[in-house]
Amino acid sequence: MTRVAFYAPMKSPNSPVPSGDREMARNLMAAIGAGGARVELVSELRIYDKAGDAETQAALRNAASAEAQRLVEELPPDFDLWVTYHNYYKAPDLIGPEVCRARGLPYVQLESTRATSRLTGPWAGFAQSAHDACDAARVIFYHTANDLITLERERFGDQALVHLSPFLPTSELPPASDCEGPMLTAGMMREGDKLRSYQIIAETLPHLTGDWRLEIAGDGPARQKVEALMARFGGRVRFLGQLDREALQAAYAGASFFLWPGVNEAFGMVYLEAQAAGLPVVAQDRPGVRDVLLPGHYPAAEEGPAALARAIELLRNDADLRRARGAKARAYIAGRHLIASATRTFWDAVGPLLEVRT
């Protein structure tokens, strides 16, 4: 059996804190393992500097050096491959390349980014390390067309860049929604881009007419701010809180369509989940987001809340259109964004590296 070492410098797949990164890391481990391999998390050392602090980076480098040495000495000899998820300038892989050089392991990366603009400034050293780690990878899998731009520009040697479509960790679709009920939003409630998406929704809702209702699934440190944004709408907006997988699936099944602007989303797992349940989506046309949505017209961000409201009204006023778009979205997910497709893409690209090694 092929044995794969897996590492995620930004956040361990075992982290107790929910996030898209944690979910995607878990999904990737499942997809790789679905090909018959044994996938093992070999380190939970977090290499992440949010603020660009030199002392923090120095301490993390020391910890990474010790961890790399431990793995060089202790990693069992029957590992065949090392996979690192989400190497970038705030969370460079300071371990994988060193271990792979010492142990002669093929090294590949998933969802890595290159940021040459960060090679100066407070993250300069970490950005260079992330860049060097990218250079060490024989294969880099990317999720969106936006990620490919810098990866291709800075490609190292004959390194392979392979598109791995974002995917759901399942081989079957959930039950389809009948596209009735309230609008549904689902998103973490935290400062920054997530809160900005909620602000856009709050700016959009006053443009709607008639008897509309919105349910919001999610929680987080900015919940009070989100509640304050929505207070003016009274009982028309209902907060569902943080939902487990089963409850969230029920929310999708009971909604008429899914609403999330998608400010700076890498791609957004919620879009995949909503469309898998047969919901049409109202979102803004943004990089990353457009890579996972059923092809069609989505208002540009610069068109503002009024354009987003028009897209909402179009679906609110036409049940047949909702169901038709929802059915197409569901078929789109089935054909491109389930685990079997990801497993096949991964092993088609990585298999030759193992053949050369043996």
From TrEMBL:
Record's keyword terms, sorted: Transferase
Domain spans labelled Glycosyl transferase family: 208-330
Molecular functions (GO terms): glycosyltransferase activity
InterPro entries reported in the protein's UniProt record: Glyco_trans_1, Glycosyltransferase_grp1
Name of one Pfam family that matches: Glycos_transf_1
PANTHER family per record: SLL1723 PROTEIN (PTHR45947:SF14), SULFOQUINOVOSYL TRANSFERASE SQD2 (PTHR45947)
Protein name, per record: Glycosyl transferase family 1
Organism of provenance: Ruegeria marisrubri
